[in-house]
Amino acid sequence: MNRYDETMGYDVIGDIHGHDEELLALLKRLGYYHNGVSYSHDRRKVLFLGDFVDRGLGQRRVLQTVMAMCNSGAARAIMGNHEFNALAYHTEHPPGSGKWLRPRTDKNTKQHFAFLREYLDSPEELQCVLDWFMTLPLWLELPEGLRLVHACWHEPSMARLQSSLGSGNTLTPELLIQASENGSQAYEDVEILLKGPELKLPGNVLFTDKDGFERHKIRIKWWLNQAATYADLALPPYVVERNPGLQGETLPEGIDIGYGQDEVPVLFGHYWFEGIASPVETNVACLDYSVPRATGKLVAYRWSGEKELLEENFWSVGNMTGPY
Prior knowledge:
The chain is α/β, with parallel strands linked by helices. The protein has eleven helices and 17 strands. A hairpin with a 7-residue loop joins strand 15 and strand 16 (about 295-305).
C-alpha cells in the first residue's frame, strides 16, 4: 500500500503519451478532484515531466486536462522530446519553403500519427497546443529542493543554452531552429536534456529498439558515479541480454556521467523502465514506466520535501487500454 501524505508538496507524473484514462485514474487516486475548471488538490500540486503526446488514443483529453491544470495554477509542466518533435514537425523553415524542421518522413509521421489524427482537422486548436508547448521549460529547479528534467540533468548543456533561452528556460523560435540543426551545439545540448546522452556501441554491435528500428547507440545511465563496462551503463536492459559480450567491453575514457550524492533530488522520465517503480539512487528516480505497453503503468512520485527518495512514495495506475 502507498502511504497517503497530506502535507504540502508536489506529485510528479511521468510520461503519459496520450493515455487519458490512466491520467485521470491516477489523479483521482492521488486525491485530485475536478472543481469545475480543472483537477486540483487542496494541499498539493502536480508537476508533469513531459511527453504528453503520441502513441495513445487520448491525445486531446490528456492535453485538455494538463493545460487546464497548468492554467489554473494546479500544476506545472516541462517539455519532453515528443513536444519538441511536434514543434519541429509543424514548423516550416524557411516559411513557404515546404521544408520542415523535423522532416515529414514516413518514420517521423508514423511516430506522430496519434497526435495528427486528433488535431489536423482543428487547425486553430492545433496552433493553441503548439503555442502552449513553446511555454514549457526545458527543466525546472524548485526552491524547495527538487529538480525536474525530461531525460538528463546536465548542467554544462544548461549553461551553454542559457543565453539563448526565453523566460523561464523556455525555447525561443530561434533556438527551436538552432536545436533542430543536427551537428549544432544547441542540437547536442537539447538532445541531452530531452533524450539523454547516448554512447556508440563497440565494433558492429547493434540492437533493434521497441519500435523495430536498428540502433548502433545506447542510452546510458548518466546518473551513475562509477561504471567500467558498456553493460554497466546500457539502457534498455535487453541490450545487454541480447549482447552479453558487452559485459567484458571496457568503456572509453572520458565518459560524462555522474550525479552527486549530495545534490538535491532529481526526477525525470523518458526511459521506458519496467518492473517495480523505485529510486535508481537515493536522490535520483525515473518516472517513465512504459504506460503504452500492455504491462506498463503511469507513475507518480509524491514528494513532500524529503532529500532521500522513498519507494513507498511511488504511486501508479496500470495500462487500461492496451499498447500503442
